[in-house]
Every structure is written in structure tokens, then in C-alpha cells.
Amino acid sequence: MIETPYLLFLGDAPDALAAKVAQGIKDWRPGNCVGQFRMEGCKADMKLTDMTLAEAKAAGAKTLVIGVANRGGVISPAWKKVLIAALEEGFDIASGLHNLLRNEEDLVAVAKACGRTLHDVRIPSVQYPIATGVKRKGKRCLAVGTDCSVGKMYTALCMDKEMKERGLKSSFRATGQTGILITGDGVPLDAVIADFMAGSIEYLTPDNDDDHWDMIEGQGSLFHASYSGVTMALIHGGQPDALVLCHEPTREHMRGLPDYKLPSLQQVRDMAMGLASWVNPDVKVVGISVNTQHMSEEDARAYLAKVEEEMGLPATDPYRYGAGPLVDALAALG
Amino acid sequence: MIETPYLLFLGDAPDALAAKVAQGIKDWRPGNCVGQFRMEGCKADMKLTDMTLAEAKAAGAKTLVIGVANRGGVISPAWKKVLIAALEEGFDIASGLHNLLRNEEDLVAVAKACGRTLHDVRIPSVQYPIATGVKRKGKRCLAVGTDCSVGKMYTALCMDKEMKERGLKSSFRATGQTGILITGDGVPLDAVIADFMAGSIEYLTPDNDDDHWDMIEGQGSLFHASYSGVTMALIHGGQPDALVLCHEPTREHMRGLPDYKLPSLQQVRDMAMGLASWVNPDVKVVGISVNTQHMSEEDARAYLAKVEEEMGLPATDPYRYGAGPLVDALAALG
């Protein structure tokens, strides 16, 4: 568990895209952000107050979150200087970078001397159990995709937000690095040891109130040859009551696999239902989430109407048009 | 790669079952075994020549393989004495124990001083790639089960043996600890990091001759809530041309999951075919392997006849009655 609130470290981000982790935190948990820390030459801006470490500390920030990708897989000397100063100032540091904070000897030494914690969210910090398959209390909704990176995290976050705005009980359950930094907690599923994948999802989504929904961030796709095992573990470990199918219609082949076309929504529905109903016979597909970011308003509206017609289910782009229809469908499950 | 031939270490095995790893090596790769090393009180016997370390060394043994489970998860002082002497004598040591050789400081120090290697086959020794999903040359057969521990390893080993006896090209591809110790190589799939599972199977089963078959050891089950993700990675990473369904008819619930009945052979066939055909449209289910060890001769024969009738496919217990029908079916694929 990462202590909040955060100071978002944007470093020397060469453009806005390099700071997309910070953007995600700012968009979804603005209340967790007291300000931003930018270095000379930083081209990203979260429209948060620029603060020194001391100012952020005084404003209550507990953790410096690295919200920017590093260049060339190296933590530069310029960054290092800020990170060490932050530890000395009393901040923990959280990072989703591939090169781990814990492998930087100077950071480890200073963190130890100052009694601070280095959070590498890319790798698990917990010894997860083996899954038991036992039914848990409360309800769970899982986003499953036709492909990787089609908007499963955004779908779960949008639905969680809509649920909370309606006064309904909901928790976003992060299964990837960005999601973990957004919420401060979660399972970095792609880095979990094979035998413990489903168990890590049971751990992430424990017993809860009967009317509480876990909105589980999906990963991979049942049809993605590289990562399908991860998706399978989410379905069996999550025991979802509801599935939302996620799709990006303009993609020409599966991400990273030029020889593979995307499966149809029908194929994903049938495969996911076949697998999920084994662990939860009451599971239902409640709707379709379409990522229309590369489509015009007219094309997006037409595509959503076509999908609704073909699938007989509500379809929306929850980020563009709101998650209302998906949350309505969840509520209708009772 | 573990150097052969082996001296099988049976330690102070309290009974034959405790030495089942040694038994597997002796049964399947007798040519790899120069002898056995037994301590005071050992109740297991592989019917190999009892040898001292020096005698085994003189007979050409390269690696001492721990073929026995240790009690209480501790490598006892009595074992330790033999293991250290083996390193000093010039043996490598290979182990599938949960507690790793590499965590024993004295073994590590002596191995280093003697220039010997400690093989912990329970954890990967390779940084596996991400799967590409690209079609490889050669053919692959995967054993998929209704449950864990129904005989998938024995099925693949029996088929590999039958193939070789017929002069056909075949390699047994191990995906578990016992299989790795039997062949000296393989992927400990249950210990691989999630993102690399399918890639590890592509790595294990690379391009080969057009008429060569990899007999891939299966793991878990698509219907086992704890381990289904591992099975999924085998199907997508293995891109099998042929599937053999494996079943144990007397089991009352899935292994470790008292709330779950076993799926039917039809359910496993349909689910496995749906997933496998995505990466290899030509995949076929070629036969059924039934583990009849808990059935009388009469019951076993009757059950096999019933399954053949119901499934329209050859069915055998390859360990009890030979793998002939399964290999015939592979050969018929051309």
C-alpha cells in the first residue's frame, strides 16, 4: 500500500505522452495529488501547482510518484539527485519503471538511512496464495478485451467513477502498474509467478458487502498468443458476476502480433462465457466498451449503434460518452 | 542442461513413494543412470548398482540427482555431508526440491571452490522471451487434462518412447520438475513469470524437421481454477498440431478443489480446440489417454471401449496397454 497523497514527479519529460502515468493519476485520483515536481526542460504539465520538495512536504505529500517514463532504461544522474533529496526530505518513492529503484544502491542506502520505503510496483511485494476457487461474497465485474491495450483499465475506472457518483459501493481493482500507481494498491499480474496468478486475483478481490462491486482491471486477451494465460487467470481467479467486452475497432492486427487479426466480439463473448461460467454459473456479459479515440463523432456513434444491434447489449465509449449504460446494466443484475 | 549420466541419490527414503523422482528417471531414461547412492535406512531401491561416489565417478557419472523428497522441507545434516562430498568428488548436483540448493550457503561455497554447478530445476535458469505466435517448423503434440496429475507426463513419455521404437523422430519436452530431471532439460512452467509463460513454451519447442514431433508435457487443466492460466500458455505457446486428452475416471473432485467436479472429456475437447485452433487452424484431437491405475482389468477395458465409442477416437492407458493407438493416430495425420 502506497501512502497518499502524492507529489507527481514529471522529471524532464520530453513530451506529454512520456508523462502518461502522471496523467492517469491526475485524471482519476486528483484528490491524491498535492502538486507536481518538474525539472529543467520538462514539456509535460498536469496543471497542478509546481512545488519544491519542501513545499509539497508542508502541503502533506507522503510519496513522490515517478509519473514519467525514463529514457533508455536508465535513471539519470539528474533524476537521482531529486530522488535522493526526496528521501532525505521524508518522502517514500513509488515507481513503475522497468529498472527497479531497489537495484539502485545509492537509493537503497539513503532510503534505509532515512527510514523511507521504495515501492517498485512493477513486481509483487506479496507472496500470493494458490487460488482456492471458493465463492466469495460481494460482486465482481471484469473487463475482457479483444486485444491488449484496448481500454480495459479506463473502462473499469470509468465504471467505478460512475458507480461512486450514484452512491453505489465500488472499488477499482488494479492489475497493472499504472492502475496500481493510480490507486496506491493492486497486483502487478504480468510479473506474478505462474502458479500464483489466479490466487493473486482472489487476494485482490476478497469477500465484501453483498452489494459491493469490484471493478477488476483486465489484462491481455484470451486470443492474444503471448498473454492469454494472464487473462485466463483473471477469469478464474476473479470469478466475475459480470463481464464487459472491450474493443478498439480501428486496429488492423493484434498488438505485437502482425500475423493475427483481432477476434470478433462474438468470439470473445463465447470464449469468456465458457470459461467464466465454470467458476460462476451466473456470470453475464452486461455490455460493450468501445475505444473510439481514433474515430470521428459520426463514425463512433454509428459504430456503437451497430454493435448494440448485433450484440443485443448496451455499447458505449465510457471515456467519451460516460459509463452510464454499463452501470445501468450492472444495476439491472440486482 | 544437466550433464548425464546420473548417479541417483536416494538418501534415507522412508519408502518407495518418497523416491518417485528417481523411479521416473530409472523408468524413462535407464541409459542415463549409472547407479544409485543409498544411505543408512533407505527403503527405496531402483534395482541399480549401489555405488560409492568414487565408484560412480569412475563409471562416468557426471551429476548427482536428488531423486528423493526431503522430510520437513529441510536438507538434513546427513544429506548435506553426502552432497558436499559429491561436489568435492567432481559431481554437479541437480534437485527439484522446494528448498533450493542455491540457498544453502555451504553447498554454494563448496560448489564454487570446486567449479561445480548446482541445478535447481524448480526455478527457471533462462530469461525466456515474450511469445511471438509465429508458426514454427516441425510438429507438436500436447497432452491436455481434465485435471492436474491425471497422467499427462506419462502420456507424453509413453508416446515419445513408442515413436522412437518405431524409428520416428520425437522429443519429450518437459514442463515440470520431474520431467526436467528425467530428460536433463525443460521449462519449469509453474515457476515462470506470467508474461513469459507462452514464450517459454515457444523456446522449449523451436523449429525442427518437418517430420519431427515434440511431445509436450501438459500442466494443470483449462478447468482448474488455480492453474488454468498455465494450461492456456501451453496451448498458445505450444501451437499444437495434435492434442491428446488425459483423464482419470475415479477422481471425485478436482485436485485441491473439493467444490469442483471434473469436466467431461467433451468439455475439455471443445474448450481446448476452440483455443488451440486460434493459433493453429489444423489442430486435431487424436486420442484419449486414460489413467486406469485405480481400475481392475475388466473395468479398465470396459471404460476404454465406452470412451472410444462416445468420443469416436482411440482410447488407451498408454502406461498399462501401450501408446500404440495414440501414435497410430499421430502418424495418420501425415
Give a short overview:
The first copy, chain A, has twelve helices and eleven strands. Chain A has helices at residues 20-28, 53-58, 77-89, 105-114, 152-165, 177-183, 197-204, 228-238, 265-279, 297-311, 318-321, 324-332; strands at residues 6-11, 33-38, 63-66, 92-95, 118-120, 139-145, 169-173, 212-216, 242-247, 284-290, 315-316.
Q: Oligomeric state of the chains? A: homodimer
Strand tally of chain A is 11
CATH-defined topology of the largest domain in chain A: Rossmann fold
Order of helices and strands of chain A: EHEHEHEHEEHEHHEHEHEHEHH
User: What is the CATH architecture term of the largest domain in chain A?
Assistant: 3-Layer(aba) Sandwich
Domain D-glutamate N-acetyltransferase-like N-terminal (chains A, B): 39-124
Pfam family, one (chains A, B): DUF1611_N
Organism (chains A, B): Pseudooceanicola antarcticus
Domain D-glutamate N-acetyltransferase-like C-terminal (chains A, B): 130-327
Write the layout of secondary structure elements.
Two copies of one chain form a homodimer.
Chain A (H helix, E strand, L loop, with lengths): L5 E6 L8 H9 L4 E6 L14 H6 L4 E4 L10 H13 L2 E4 L9 H10 L3 E3 L18 E7 L6 H14 L3 E5 L3 H7 L13 H8 L7 E5 L11 H11 L3 E6 L17 H15 L4 E7 L6 H15 L3 E2 L1 H4 L2 H9 L2
Parallel strand pairs in A: 1-2, 1-3, 3-4, 4-5, 6-8, 6-9, 7-8, 9-10, 10-11
Helix pairs in contact in A: 1-6, 3-4, 7-8
Your description of this structure?
The structure is a homodimer of 334-residue chains. By secondary structure, the first copy, chain A, is an alpha/beta fold. Chain A has 2 domains: 6-120, 3-Layer(aba) Sandwich (Rossmann fold), CATH 3.40.50; 139-332, Rossmann fold (3-Layer(aba) Sandwich). Chain A is built from 12 helices and 11 strands. The first copy, chain A, has helices at 20-28, 53-58, 77-89, 105-114, 152-165, 177-183, 197-204, 228-238, 265-279, 297-311, 318-321, 324-332; strands at residues 6-11, 33-38, 63-66, 92-95, 118-120, 139-145, 169-173, 212-216, 242-247, 284-290, 315-316. In chain A, the strands form 2 sheets. Chain A has a 6-stranded parallel beta sheet with strand order 7-8-6-9-10-11, with helices on both faces. A 5-stranded parallel beta sheet of chain A has the order 2-1-3-4-5, with helices on both faces. In chain A, helix 1 links the parallel strand 1 (6-11) and strand 2 (33-38). In chain A, helix 7 (197-204) crosses helix 8 (228-238). Chains A, B: It holds the Pfam family DUF1611_N. Chains A, B: It comes from Pseudooceanicola antarcticus. Chains A, B: This is DUF1611 domain-containing protein.
